[in-house]
Amino acid sequence: CDWSSDVCSSDLEAVEEATAEESGRLHNVTKQQIITLFSHGNSVESISEQLNVPVSTVQLVIDNYFEADAN
After folding, report:
1. What pTM does this model have?
2. pLDDT digits 0-9 by tens, 41-63
């Protein structure tokens, strides 16, 4: 932990793990809605508001989609 910072890296890892778990619980239909809305030009924030899903989760779904697509 870097005490000169307000946030510890271990705290960030815990948030990332929680977000990943949350994303894993998202129904496939919701994941598809996120990708569809994003592909139609909606911002991450807009998708978050429309689907009532945290911004971090929307971003994670999008990142995972493009990561899987690249492989």
Report:
1. 0.60
2. 999 999 999 999 999 999 999 99
